[in-house]
Amino acid sequence: MIDLAVYVAAGIFLCFAVHRIAVARTGRIQRCMWGFALCLGVSLLLNAPDNRPAAGQAAHLVVLTHALKLAALTCLGLIAMTLDRPSAGRPSWARQLGAGLAAQVASAVLFASAHVVVAQESVLVRPSRSWAFALYGALFAVYGWLCLVPLVRALARHARRAEPGAIRTGLWLMTLASGAGVLWTSWALADAHDVLRHGQVGLGEDLMSTLLGITVALLGVGGASAAFRPDILRAPARWFRARRAFHALEPLWAALHAELPDIALPTAATERRSHLPWPGTFDLYRRVIEIRDAYLSLRPYSQPETLDRPTTAAQPTDAADPHHAAALEAAAIAAALENRRLNRRHDTDPGTIHPAPHAPRTLDDEADWLVQVARAFASSPEVNRIRSRVSADGG
Predict the structure, then answer these.
(1) What are φ and ψ of residue 260, in 5° steps?
(2) Do 15 and 38 contact (CB within 8 A), yes or no?
């Protein structure tokens, strides 16, 4: 299971790197994001169990994967610096790259000083040299903090300033990914502790490190995709809103359908689309059309004078308030349904049931409005009072 998760995390990073290669030349942040995803994806892929070389060459692989992770952290440090100071020039970049190079050299020296022996599933260190390997892990954790903590602060600041939407969501996801990255790099201290205590450490990623790695991959790639390609989140968000609105319309539609079963459109079209990723939007629009058809069928049964009488919950003068207007419309529908059940038609045309001030301009607005009406229809006491009054008048 751990091996599969490592491959999944590596695949996410590498796919993102391939996806971003086309825009890597458009700016510093894009280049750093591409470099981070590439370095970390390759390091995880090389560290997977099936890709490890023979024991005699495994030490070189440990050094290489560690160097790639340090390079990935350097890319994140450059992103944090650019977000903090967009006008930072070459000297600032040179200092950040110099710090990354110093970390690489110090890590290589400490690894060589530890005189490690890489066995089948673990890295063995002599007790007299365990301090060197412990510093090797601690250096990685400290350098990770120095790169990631400023990135968390910079992303959180930009996220707070951003307008609500996909970009802001993406920035917050990247902030969470950076926070998870702090925990991920800190997990290297556990390896340092194991070396000091037992003289050995497991080769590759353990369960906690793997879980943190895949968390960073999912949050980071998802956030970056949303922030730089906001349209990526629009489709699932639109689907979710459509499904929620579809179910919210159920009380109103069910009452209309029980009295007017002919409003249901043929289902063959929706059944053919059931394998598509966006049936929620199609079904919602279909339901809106069916409700509007029912409204037209109920026009001969509308009874405006019933709503003109004073009530405890709503008045016709409340139509300027959308909530009261929705309650009035729900009450009008309830009255028309009760009149139809009693077979009481009216000779005069009462006009449309929908209040003119709230006539929606788009189909999405229409769905949002009908959701308010459906909620009022299901929960407003005014609806029950109007229904009882019409039934009493009919008796």
Answers:
(1) -130, 75
(2) no
239 and 281 Cβ atoms separated by less than 8 Å: yes
| pLDDT one-digit tens code per residue, 225-250 | 665 555 555 666 677 788 888 888 99
What's the whole-model pTM score?
A: 0.56
The beta-carbon contacts of 80-88 under 8 Å, at least 24 apart in sequence, are: 80/147, 80/148, 80/150, 80/151, 80/153, 80/154, 81/150, 82/28, 82/29, 82/32, 83/29, 83/151, 83/154, 83/155, 83/158, 84/150, 84/154
Binned at pLDDT 50, 70 and 90, residue 101 comes out as: very high
Average pLDDT, the chain: 75
What is the number of other CB atoms lying within 10 angstroms of the CB of residue 244?
13
Closest CA to 19 of 29, 7, 30: 30
Mutual angle of helices 381-394 and 363-379, in 10-degree steps: 70
Contacts of 129 (CB under 8 A, 6+ apart): 113, 114, 115
Q: Are strands 117-118 and 122-124 parallel, antiparallel or unpaired?
A: antiparallel
- pLDDT-derived band at 298 (thresholds 50, 70, 90) equals confident
